[in-house]
Amino acid sequence: MTYQTALPALADPTRRRVFERLRHGPRSVGEIAKGLPVSRPAVSQHLKVLKEAGLVDDHADGTRRVYYIDPKGLAALRRWLDQFWDDALEAFRAEVESDKEKE
Amino acid sequence: MTYQTALPALADPTRRRVFERLRHGPRSVGEIAKGLPVSRPAVSQHLKVLKEAGLVDDHADGTRRVYYIDPKGLAALRRWLDQFWDDALEAFRAEVESDKEKE
DNA sequence: ACTTACTGTAAGTAATGACTTACCAAACGG
DNA sequence: CCGTTTGGTAAGTCATTACTTACAGTAAGT
Prior knowledge:
The structure is a homodimer. By secondary structure, chain A is an alpha+beta fold. Chain A has one domain: Orthogonal Bundle (Arc Repressor Mutant, subunit A), CATH 1.10.10.10. Helices cover 65% and strands 14% of the residues of chain A. In chain A, strands 1-3-2 form a 3-stranded antiparallel beta sheet. The longest helix of chain A has 32 residues, at 71-102. The termini of chain A are far apart. In chain A, 24% of the residues are buried. Chain A binds chain B through residues 4, 7-8, 10-13, 16, 20, 22-26, 68-69, 71, 74, 77-78, 81-82, 84-85, 87-89, 91-92, 94-95, and chain B through 4, 7-8, 10-13, 16, 20, 22-26, 68-69, 71, 74, 77-78, 81-82, 84-85, 87-89, 91-92, 94-95. Chain A binds a DNA duplex through helix 4.
């Protein structure tokens, strides 16, 4: 049920840019911050939110911290979204059906 | 590319509750608002945001307005999420591979 | 026509949250 | 050791936004 924290985490544009920088592999905080229009502490705060949402994880590497995507958060989002999708389509099908009966 | 508006739209808990009330079929504004802990105008505002995000649509029915889920928004979200998922897995695979070479 | 039912909009408020600078801690290299 | 690199945290600020009440509009019923 972590989609409830994952959705707000991915709602902010710059935080999404932080997240998307990990899309093709692990990066250190400095590498992530480089090129972004916000300060490095801001990036740290975004990473904290993403981590609490189960979207990223990290491990130490000397004085640096390497962040990488944690599949857990994305998986939870996908489950919620797919379930919703199925329900919505089924509801739509049922709607068409009941409309037919009225004729 | 509407996932950029769909994500913030689904980030708010009460707005998500509004959206989820349409999960199993169309509802009028009054029906949606009934039982929710916020006022009816608040629900109207949430519906406006959801509509601008392509997540819902509506049509008139007398003095009432019936809202229903618009698959466009959900589809856009799914595309983005699936693409992200694929990239993340591929990156993970490549990471494991490059780690092997180091040994 | 006149009331009733239903909904969207305006305006104002309070809370949330994204950002900044300043500071502190930990690990590496000379 | 000591300076440098790296990154997390604290405190404060500003903008966003979710909510309220009040109002306006439109369609149906009598």
